[in-house]
Design brief:
Layout: E1 2-7, H1 10-20, E2 27-32, E3 42-43, H2 51-60, E4 65-68, H3 71-75, H4 78-84, E5 89-90, H5 98-101, H6 103-113, E6 120-123, H7 126-136, E7 140-144, E8 153-156, H8 159-170, E9 182-186, E10 191-200, E11 204-206, E12 211-212, E13 215-217, E14 221-224, E15 229-232, H9 239-259, E16 265-275, E17 278-285, H10 292-299, H11 304-313, E18 327-335, E19 347-348, H12 351-355, E20 360-364, E21 367-370, E22 373-376, E23 380-388, H13 391-404, E24 410-411, H14 418-421
Parallel strand pairs: 1-2, 1-4, 2-3, 4-5
Antiparallel strand pairs: 6-9, 7-8, 7-9, 10-11, 10-16, 12-15, 13-14, 15-18, 16-17, 18-23, 18-24, 19-22, 20-23, 21-22
Helix pairs in contact: 1-10, 7-8
Length: about 425
């Protein structure tokens, strides 16, 4: 089969790496890809949001399956466009992708189908939003309704912070159209966890658990980011809790989407808050997490490609996946200044040394080639991933690889996995 993966980040590199190992894969392409992806796939200069360019390439290169990595093309209807032309796509339709594209829509689904989530208000005007803040106080969470590249969630510890966030979104155009509506919700106690399931419209197949680190600084301090590291399994998600997540969150959502006439097909990613064994939904994403995808792919023993095809064909009911018993942990190396204004163009050395460590894979998230030089082009730039029998050993292996990389223009957290290791 000829496979085309859409995207240019660490998630897409992990997917390409796994798909390239499939016995069913003939040629694997990535659009637009990056310097690391180019080692595992043939990169083509087509932007992830260029629907017609992607369609034309898929037709002219006999692409059998398009795997859509990022959320924006899914929300914009890329899967619909490809399917309309008879090209198989892995990823939900635009209507189903509203689960990520509109936080308000997700909250309405939760209300209608009794899916446990935080109490909330949904607003398009400043006055009622400020009234809600006055009534509920702080700490509280303010979210842009639409896609904001992982930066549209403000954890407001004071009412003043919450008011500033609401004003910035509804009046200050901070996130553009994504912030034209806001969701304000209660601040839930507990620990966050990421839960993934493959869904074929009717059947949901859970994947192994994972937990990520959203804050930029050690000890989970500082502003939220797209993710500074992740590990799998997540000790927090016991077998009993995983069962509750499936019974109370994932499966009701799958039924809801089918009943609403927009059956969900793809990977469904639930961001959850868990306290005293009780899960509550924080948000849905309609694609693999980044950087959680990197640790999942490191632990996946089965061939990924048949699983993605089973999702498309509605064949998950009798499907199963095998996983390595080992743990995996990834450390994100980001450009200095991230998640604010960050430096671009700094040179990175030592990737080969890091990659040569047994059980280590360096996934590229924001790199390019400048002649013989490898340079940083994004905020999150490398995902240094280790696999070992325990989370502590995987952590040690990942940081050994981090220390082998010579990149003065970047930084990383030094405590990824601390909750699991203690």
């Amino acid at each position: 089969m000829n496979i085309l993966v859409i995207g240019a980040g660490g998630r897409e590199h992990a997917l390409v790496w796994a798909l390239a190992a499939s016995s069913l894969a003939d040629r694997v392409y990535a659009a637009p890809g990056n310097a690391g992806l180019a080692e595992d796939a043939e990169c083509v200069a087509i932007a992830a949001d260029d629907r017609e360019g992607i369609l034309a390439f898929a037709k002219s290169n006999a692409i059998d399956l398009v795997v859509i990595g990022p959320e924006a093309p899914l929300v914009a209807g890329l899967a619909d466009r490809l399917e309309a032309e008879g090209i198989k796509a892995f990823g939900p339709s635009a209507r189903a992708a509203r689960l990520e594209g509109s936080k308000g829509f997700t909250k309405e689904v939760c209300d209608r189908y009794a899916i446990p989530t935080a109490a909330y208000g949904h607003f398009t005007e400043l006055g009622p939003a400020l009234d809600y803040l006055e009534a509920h106080g702080a700490p509280i969470v303010v979210k842009a309704d639409g896609l904001a590249a992982g930066k549209g969630v403000i954890m407001a510890e004071t009412r003043a912070e919450a008011e500033d966030a609401v004003r910035d979104m509804l009046e200050g155009n901070r996130f553009g159209a994504a912030g034209a509506e806001v969701v304000i919700e209660e601040w839930l106690p507990g620990q966050e966890a990421s839960f993934f399931a493959l869904v074929d419209g009717e059947t949901a197949l859970p994947l192994v658990s994972a937990q990520d680190h959203k804050r930029v600084g050690d000890g989970d301090t500082g502003p939220n980011t797209g993710g500074m590291g992740a590990y799998s399994p997540a000790p927090l998600v016991t077998e009993a809790i995983a069962g509750r997540i499936m019974d109370e969150v994932i499966e009701p959502t799958v039924r809801a989407m089918k009943e609403m006439g927009c059956p969900y097909k793809g990977v469904l990613y639930a961001g959850l808050m868990i306290e005293d064994g009780t899960p509550k939904l924080l948000e849905y994403n309609v694609r693999f997490g980044d950087p959680e995808c990197q640790v999942l792919m490191m632990r996946l023993m089965s061939d990924l490609l048949p699983a993605l095809l089973a999702v498309h064909e509605g064949g998950l009911r009798h499907f199963d996946l095998r996983w390595h018993a080992d743990a995996a942990l990834t450390v994100v190396m980001a450009a200095n200044g991230y998640p604010g204004d960050y430096q671009k163009g700094s040179e990175i050395r030592g990737i080969e040394t890091a990659d040569a460590i047994p059980g280590v894979k360096v996934f590229h998230a924001g790199t390019a080639r400048d002649g013989d030089r490898l340079i940083a082009t994004g905020g999150r730039v490398l995902d240094v991933t280790g696999r070992a029998p325990t989370i502590a050993e995987a952590q040690a292996k990942a940081y050994r690889a981090v220390d082998a990389i010579d990149w003065p223009g970047g930084f990383c957290r030094r405590d990824i996995g601390w909750r699991a290791i203690g």
